[in-house]
Amino acid sequence: MFIQQIDAKVTGVSYELLGKGRELAEKLNSDVTAVLLGHNVGGLCDKLASFGADKVVLVDDAALETYTTEPYTHAVHSVIEKYKPEIFLFGATAIGRDLAPRVSARVHTGLTADCTKLEIDEESKLLRMTRPAFGGNIMATILCPDFRPQMATVRPGVMKKILPIEGAKAVVDEFNPGFELNNKYVEVVEIIKKVSNKVDIMDAKILVSGGRGVGSPENFKLLKDLADAIGGEVASSRASVDAGWTEKDIQVGQTGKTVRPSVYFACGISGAIQHLAGMEESDLIIAINKDESAPIFDVADVGIVGDLNKILPILTEKIKTEFA
Ligand code: FAD
The whole model's pTM is what? Predict the structure, then answer.
């Protein structure tokens, strides 16, 4: 699988892929190989072993210092040509979504994008790649019987990483296919990093999420107050993002982020399938909705039927006084 690193820091989804890779490899009596690209990144290999890689194919070259499409495509393509894997996985990050289709076209195989489930078919031993289709109304399971590798991108936050294995050492295979600058190579002139002091909702342990039922951007203050009182972060449904009340980077769901917090408050969220796809793995779901037949109550562990404008301030006050 493709290991994404930026500034020599491995992106979380790559560890999740290694965890899933372990499970798939065991079913196939095969090995997990991490493909690590970059410049001066060899120091990451043992960490990849501790998260489940049996072997690391390391392509270390100055041309791979920062991500650009052409050299990365050339490198992954060359690795696939040399090692001929049965399965090749990418994280469905911005980089993975740019790289995977190019690689799949170059090696002439299919690509199932944005998978939420991967498993091995007991009989055929093919990879069953499942993803939402037709606007999320059905889950489609896709097979790639005729071409290799079977390729998929996987959404961050969906698969689970394994607990790190202490002291694991990677078997490293260094490989360099050679890079020749040509007119397809994009030159990165400057990198301007987005500075944000916000916590990524994918890392938050407690999320207070609001939907159309919150009613206005100002009313999100009720959610922020609760989040502050319990050390959580505010998230939202797509309806709130589309209404311009909240930023896209806190959207939960099929076209937003997949989250697994310890506690997820769904406030004024109906529970559409596309929203559930991003949060139903949360440990404890607390739903507040004035409609007792809202589908969110089907997945909620605790359901409160009522007006969030009344319930949220009471809850926040209670938490503040009880836990002050
Ligand atoms: P609504 O469905 O309008 O629900 C509002 C809820 O608030 C209702 O249940 C109502 O009873 C309740 N309510 C109203 N007032 C109050 C009050 N005062 N107190 C308590 N409850 C109240 N959606 C996502 O969230 N994330 C996605 O990533 C996503 N991706 C999508 C991708 C595709 C391809 C498509 C087609 C749709 C996608 N959607 C996504 C949209 C999704 O189908 C729903 O339209 C959306 O989730 C609805 O958001 P909502 O629950 O906030 O709003």
Answer: 0.76
pLDDT in tens, 248-282: 999 999 889 999 999 999 999 999 999 998 999 99
In the reported structure, the alpha carbon of residue 255 is separated from the centroid of ligand 1 by a whole-number distance in angstroms of 13
- For residue 149, say if its preceding peptide bond is cis, omega within 30 degrees of 0: yes
Atom 27 of ligand 1: nearest residue by CA position: 253
Token digits of residue 217: 């951007």
DSSP 253-302: STTSB----SEEEEES----HHHHTTTTT-SEEEEEES-TT-THHHH-SE
219 lines ligand 1 (CB under 6 A): no
Residue type, 166: E
Interval 208-236 mean pLDDT: 96
210 lines ligand 1 (CB under 6 A): no
Nearest CA to ligand 1 atom 37: 274
pLDDT at 183: 66
